[in-house]
Write a structure and sequence with these properties.
Pfam families: PASTA (PF03793), PBP_dimer (PF03717), Transpeptidase (PF00905). With 720 residues, the protein is of the alpha+beta class. 29% of the residues lie in helices and 24% in strands.
Length: 720
């Protein structure tokens, strides 16, 4: 017995010594095993990057939501009198089925299956994710044992149907580790998925077997890195004007589809872009098999909007004679006859009248003067037949049909040759911008929100001018005559307060198997225009495919209703002076910083400028616009002094100028609505500070007749 127990003791001692010296047992490193037993890690979720409009308004962002989990193991209760696991699957299923998209039986089956497999907890998949705070609170009121909630992030599209085919959407996808991550599936969300996706952080600590932090241990925190923020050239207010106009046209005319673009001709910035049918990105309701952005990825035969560029080619070549006559009605080339849209024409008329009437035959005769090869060269100069280079993928290039003489004739009035809507907009920038053609773009900048670093900063890109400034101005005047002339096809596009110029289009739509549809309800009706004529600030393109017109209605009705609503509201929103107001002479903004605020006010007003005073005493600390800025006399200048701030009367102010005041005054102003100010929560003259909440309500130009009197084209100063 002595030898037996002595031998066992010797073996045990040898084992202890071996473990102590080598630090291993059964081939495992004991220190690592202990570390894994007590080491704990919690993931800190990163937010997906925001998509933001040109004025800092959020279009897409992550918002807090909750994920529901059911703890089903009796071990969780741990001999407690109060159950901490799902003790009654039937009752639990009965309650939860009222709140999530699962039937009572589906929930029972899910719980029982995992209870049988001795799982500790179970998730509910997609129905158990993206639960709102309100719904979570309602479920918690039922005091269901074992039902717990974990904070999660949900992709939120607060504006609903808002440039949906441009913005796209992201959906949660489960990875191999079981974690759900938002992944871009369409539009900008898909294109910039890598930039928008953040990197999760984590908290590492040592805990006991129940997960509690052990005393005297440190936590190691790796901060999450949120995804990059993408700032667009899109203006939320103008986009809303466009969405509203398209919704009304869709309800009234039931077209097969519609496409519309609003752009700044001076920079190429896209201010709004939308199409119909569209969808609700939060639910994907309305999303059809067409995931294409029609403005850039789909080609069309443009119809008579192409006559703008035929006219520009003739003027640039010096062969345009507006007072020369031709015989309208028909034009025969070999065995083909081209006819005007009224078939018989208007007799012998001038080329100017022919353009105003949108005569196809006038274009055929004009081509003889320009020359076939020269005309095709001009189409390439205007960017047709090649991609514009807009910062969106899968852009179509279109095809210039010019193989035989008849194709070159039909291309002069937009049949046969195919283009994209964005090419038409790019081409018109040259007409609106004194011959300078600007490349369109939608991404303003991409910013790392963790560091503030600007990763991508897009600037306007001027392309090679296709025509001279003199030609551009002449084309613009002729386009304006299509609106004002008694013969003009664009009379419906006349605005109440602004001058406008543009060209209507009625194009046949090609059938899939060849040939064209025919009839008033089977055409593509469009308009490509700009305003105001004196100094175009906006370009708008509208295309309506196959609207359901009544017997007395014409194709220009839906396009004109969209165009007029969007461009007039947008010009007012941008504080562009209507034609009825006298144009003020430009002056250079003086420097008043450091000068007495009362003397500065007198100096500015003596030059015809209006002033908004922020703080009534001592020297001027800030001014906006800054010194040296060119602005119009009768414009408004903001100057900030010291002392108490008295609230002005905001009535009639645009949102843009309200944000300028908010930035300089550093007052927590809550802005509700779009358009112009109609009411404010505090009366004029109230003393306010950086802790005084002020609520200001705005209405759109359709809801109010207020005409803003503040300075046009002011940029909002950067806000802290």
């Amino acid at each position: 017995m002595f030898l037996l127990y002595g031998g066992l003791f010797f073996l045990l001692l040898s084992r202890f010594l071996f473990i102590q010296v080598t630090g291993t047992a059964d081939g495992q490193v004991l220190s690592a095993k202990a570390e894994s037993k007590y080491s704990r890690e919690q993931v800190i979720q990163a937010s997906r990057g925001k998509i933001i409009d040109r004025n800092g308004e959020v279009i897409v962002e992550d918002t807090l939501s909750y994920k529901m989990i059911a703890v089903i193991s009796p071990k969780a209760t741990n001999n407690s009198n109060v159950p901490r696991h799902v003790a009654d699957p039937e009752k639990t299923a009965q309650v939860l089925s009222q709140y999530i998209d699962m039937t009572e039986q589906e929930i029972i089956d899910l719980l029982n299956k995992n209870i049988k497999n001795e799982m500790y907890q179970v998730e509910f998949g997609k129905p158990g994710r993206d639960i709102s705070f309100k719904k979570m609170a309602e479920i918690k009121e039922h005091n269901l044992p074992g039902i717990i909630f974990i904070q999660d992030m949900k992709r939120l599209y607060p504006n609903g149907q808002f440039a949906s085919h441009l913005i796209g959407f992201a959906l949660k996808e489960e990875k191999e580790d079981g974690k759900a991550v938002a992944v871009g599936k369409m539009g900008l969300e898909y294109i910039y998925d890598k930039e928008l996706t953040g990197t999760a952080g984590k908290i590492e600590f040592k805990g006991d077997t129940k997960g509690f932090l052990l005393p005297n241990t440190e936590k190691m925190i790796t901060k999450p890195q949120d995804g990059d923020d993408i700032y667009l050239t899109i203006d939320k207010t103008i986009q809303n004007f466009l969405e509203d106009a398209l919704n009304k046209a869709e309800e009234k005319y039931h077209p097969e589809k519609m496409t519309a673009i609003v752009a700044n001709p001076k920079t190429g910035e896209i201010l709004a872009m939308s199409q119909r049918p569209t969808f609700e990105p939060n639910t994907r309701e309305g999303l059809s098999t067409n995931w294409l952005n029609e403005a850039t990825e789909q080609t069309i035969e443009p119809g008579s909007t192409m006559k703008i560029f035929t006219l520009a080619s003739a003027i640039e070549q010096g062969v345009w004679d507006p007072n020369a006559f031709y015989k309208s009605g028909s034009y025969t080339l070999y065995d083909r006859t081209i006819r005007d849209h009224n078939v018989y024409g208007w007799g012998t008329i001038t080329f100017l009248e022919g353009f105003q009437r949108s005569s196809n035959v006038s274009m055929a005769y004009l081509l003889n003067r320009i020359g076939d090869e020269t005309f095709i060269e001009y189409l390439h100069r205007f960017g047709f037949g090649e991609k514009t280079g807009i910062d969106l993928p899968h852009e179509a290039s279109g095809t210039i049909l010019a193989t035989n003489p008849i194709e070159r004739v039909t291309s002069t009035y937009g049949q046969g040759t195919t283009v994209t809507p964005i090419q038409l907009v790019q081409g018109l920038t040259a007409i609106a911008n004194k011959g300078k053609m600007m490349q369109p773009y939608v991404i303003d900048k991409i910013v790392n929100p963790n560091t503030g670093e600007v990763l991508t900063d897009h600037k306007p890109v001027e392309k090679k001018s296709p025509i001279s400034a003199k030609t551009a101005d002449q084309v613009k005047e002729i386009l304006a005559s299509t609106v004002t002339s008694e013969h003009g096809t664009a009379k419906r596009f006349k605005l109440d307060e602004y001058t406008t110029a543009g060209k209507t289009g009625t194009a046949q739509i090609a059938k899939p198997g060849g040939g064209y549809y025919w009839g008033s309800n089977f055409f593509l009706y469009s308009f490509l225009g700009m305003a105001p004529v004196e100094d175009p600030q906006l370009i708008v393109y509208v295309a309506v495919h196959k609207p359901q017109l009544e017997g007395t209605e014409v194709g220009s009705e839906p396009t004109s209703e969209i165009f007029k609503s969007v461009i007039e509201n947008s010009l007012k929103y941008l504080n562009i002076k209507p034609k009825s107001l006298e144009l003020a002479s430009p002056i250079k903004m003086p420097n008043v910083v450091g000068k007495d605020i009362i003397e500065s006010q007198s100096l500015l007003e003596s030059q015809g400028l209006k002033t908004v005073i922020i703080g009534q005493r001592e020297q001027v600390k800030e001014q906006f616009p800054i010194a040296g800025t060119s602005m119009l006399a009768s414009g408004t200048v903001f100057i900030k002094g010291q002392g108490e701030i008295q609230l002005p009367n905001f009535t009639g102010w645009s949102k843009r100028n309200l944000l300028i005041y908010k930035s300089l005054a550093n007052i927590p102003i809550e802005v509700i609505g779009e358009g112009y100010v109609t009411s404010q929560s505090l009366t004029t003259g109230s003393i306010v500070s950086d802790t005084t909440p002020v609520v200001v309500r705005l209405s759109t130009p359709k809801e109010t007749e207020i005409l803003p009197e503040l300075e046009e084209n002011m940029e909002i100063p950067p806000q802290d």
